[in-house]
Amino acid sequence: MHSVSPEITIQNAALETSIASAKQGLLKFRQPDGHWVFELEADGTIPSEYVLLRHYLGEPVDAELEGKIANYLRRTQGRHGGWALVQDGDFDMSASVKVYFALKMIGDSTDAPHMVRAREAIRSRGGAVNVNVFTRFLLAMFGILSWRATPVLPVEIMLLPMWFPFHLNKMSYWARTTIVPLMVLAALKPRAQNKKGVGIDELFLEDPSRIGGIKRAPHQSRAMFAFFTGIDILLRAAEPYFPKKLRAHSIAKAVEFCEERLNGEDGLGAIYPPMANMVMMYEVLGFPADYPPRAIQRRGIDKLLIVGEVEAYCQPCVSPVWDTALTAHAMLETGGDEAFGPAKEGLDWLATKQVLDVKGDWAVKRPDLRPGGWAFQYNNAYYPDLDDTAVVMMAMDRARRQTGGKEYDVALDRGREWILGMQSSDGGFAAFEVDNLEYYLNNIPFSDHGALLDPPTEDVTARCVSMLAQLGDTVETSKPLADGVEYLRRTQLAEGSWYGRWGLNYIYGTWSVLCALNAVGIDHQDPAFRKAVAWLLSIQNEDGGWGEDAVSYRLDYKGFEAAPSTSSQTAWALLALMAAGEVDNPAVARGTRYLMDTQTEKGLWDEARYTATGFPRVFYLRYHGYSKFFPLWALARFRNLKSTNSKTVGVGM
């Protein structure tokens, strides 16, 4: 942690060289049409599921591709013998079982040293009985577990009215799109082709065919879990007697739901799990491989692959809107025609991606609201993202300030209208939903991951507050803005930080909120600022950077969890401190020096650690772009503030 060290002086010439080098490095990643998209890496589960999907479908073996995926999976094996959710992370049972299964399917001998280590690690922790719900469904489809080991998911849920306690629109978008095709699979109980006949009985300490229901997860209430388990038992007994016509009608509704949201090759929900489930759904329903929606979805899955000379993996999704918007911010901060021109081209590309003609699932709760947001991926019109929308809008506003033009005015007006309409009743903003507060659903047996909902969060709320303030709203003139600020004030933790739902973790949340409070015009001497600054200073690493471990998401919260410095987390801390008026603080100079000293010859930064979050404690992300645009952004802001009389950041981020 931070200790007293000699004051560091940043030479202007060296800083300019560092900024110029980073800018050139970032420009090399620009796509021909002006946008940016970087690799988005998760853990070993997605590439393993990809391998198993191909064998489920009985597709011809692509030995070269499978060999490269196997290389990736072997390299990412942890010292504990299994696989983790983040680099150097703790053993994760579900990831380890899936990776072992995939490697065995590819052809790795069970006697190979890495397979022996993995098997021993799994068995020493109670065996594969301890996998999560999604893995249980996968193993049931391969005939390894019986369907009794999975929760009941009646496809008749498709017909339930909105007032019913368990309704699709009371879940998050990612849960909804994953569950709908999975319900068809659960109803028809297919069997994988598995032409090699590969099984993993050796990972169990008992007969896997006799394994029953799942155990209560740590986040689940004993009473609520017992209640829902009772319902699960009743449904299992009653399901065989459901009318066949009702089941057929429900399956048809599920297929209709999926095909309405197909997004072409971008896929259902534009994320891997729903896409894979949809392809398997078509398979069990008897649709041939060349049936257009099935073929389109299958091609879309292959578009998620990252194939190198030696290794390959499958991305969970792609992030072009997010990457382009954040890169545009970094370029606009850098300044000069060489940076502004590409930023403007990226924003022009983003303008074409605004969703103006589709009322997505969010409209169930806001039927009179006009669409106007941006999705995270190339195409995902049913599920625009408030976080992306706010970030895009702030970049567009920055650009129009420079040009004095009005080309983004209509887009900004529509985006602002949509975000205001998506504010939840507690004053906060969520990523995709509004008032998605049915917390009891996280106690159903299916929700052992605890990620069934999309409630308001500090980081997304901060982004929306920043955007509204940058566009001219004030707490005096705008009740939505005032409510958002109040939400942020009451969610500050005792030590001064804020939770980061979509970035890891308290550093990310604190950066997001300090930018918002600054944009609103709250005095930098306000206690909220002072506590947050003191906290950020207290967690600075000896090398001048900042880092935080994924363990900070633990249910039994014990505060910040230190980790080696990373370029992205250091950049967030620096941007947060500068938003708080601390550009002259020696800690900022030390952090800036850390970024300059760790910059590579290509002008960018190496960052192997995962610093983003899919679902806390369940699924993490490594954005390959974060180590490219965030450090440049921080360096350029430091230069800009040091070279002006005003030490106040004048934009929302």
TrEMBL record:
The keyword Repeat applies. Gene3D superfamilies: 1.50.10.20. GO terms for biological process: triterpenoid biosynthetic process. InterPro entries: Hopene-cyclase (IPR006400), SQ_cyclase_C (IPR032696), SQ_cyclase_N (IPR032697), Squalene_cyclase (IPR018333), Terpene_synthase_CS (IPR002365), Terpenoid_cyclase/PrenylTrfase (IPR008930). PROSITE patterns: TERPENE_SYNTHASES (PS01074). Keywords: Isomerase, Repeat. Pathway: Secondary metabolite biosynthesis; hopanoid biosynthesis. Belongs to the terpene cyclase/mutase family. This is Squalene-hopene cyclase. It comes from Tardiphaga robiniae.
